[in-house]
Amino acid sequence: MKAHKQHVDMLKCEKERERRELEVKSRHQVEAVALAQEQLKINKKKEEINRRRRKEKEEKNQQKQQRFVAAVRSHLKQRVEQSRIELPALCMCGETFWDTNPNTCANNCMFYNNQDAYAKALQAVLEVVERNITPFHKDGLQRCAVSLPLVTDDFKESAPSVGSLAANLSLRSNLSSALTIEKLQ
After folding, report:
1. Which one, 36, 121, 151, 166, has least CB within 10 Å?
2. Which residues have a Cβ under 8 Å from the Cβ of 97 and sit 6 or more positions away?
3. Cα torsion through 27, 30, 36, 40, rounded to 10
4. Is the entire prediction scored with pTM above 0.70?
């Protein structure tokens, strides 16, 4: 009888030990799942913050491009008015040169939502205008504006940035102003 009681106590102790081990194991699993869920929440928050930052950066770049294009347009308009040159339309979306706008062009137009190509075209026209082309050479002006290498999504890495275009325009404008002043003197 004593041996039987010892055997039953030993079985109870073994079952109790197994139950505790199972309880500890399940507690560790629950903690691991909770930790994984917490880590997932943290990662989602980080991704959301990074997405917002990218979006803000993209919006700032787009605003910068729009300001640059507006500045080039106003500078070009001033030069054209001074030179009294009649400019042809850059694309078929606008009746005149000044009606062309990447935001309002048709979706099959080369300037449709392509500020870089539009800025490049304006810059090319500005270069031609600064070389004092007369209205007689209007055909050459149109060829220059239309035959530009356009920036596409595939080749954006090799295209000059808006900042380099702005610096180039500023340098060219300063040189042109200096040459004009020298001619007057």
Report:
1. 36
2. 87, 88, 89, 90, 125
3. -150
4. no
Q: What is the mean pLDDT of each run of 10 residues along the chain (185 residues)?
A: 88 93 94 94 96 96 88 82 78 81 83 84 80 53 47 44 51 48 42
Cα separation, 126 vs 85, in Å, equals: 12
- What's the full length of the chain, in residues? 185
The full DSSP string for 102-134 is: TTTS-TTSTTTT-HHHHHHHHHHHHHHHHTT--
Q: Which of 94, 142, 126, 79 is nearest to 102 (CA)?
A: 94
**The dihedral sign for the CA sequence 42, 43, 48, 49:** positive
DSSP category for residue 151: P
Residue 132 one-letter amino acid: N
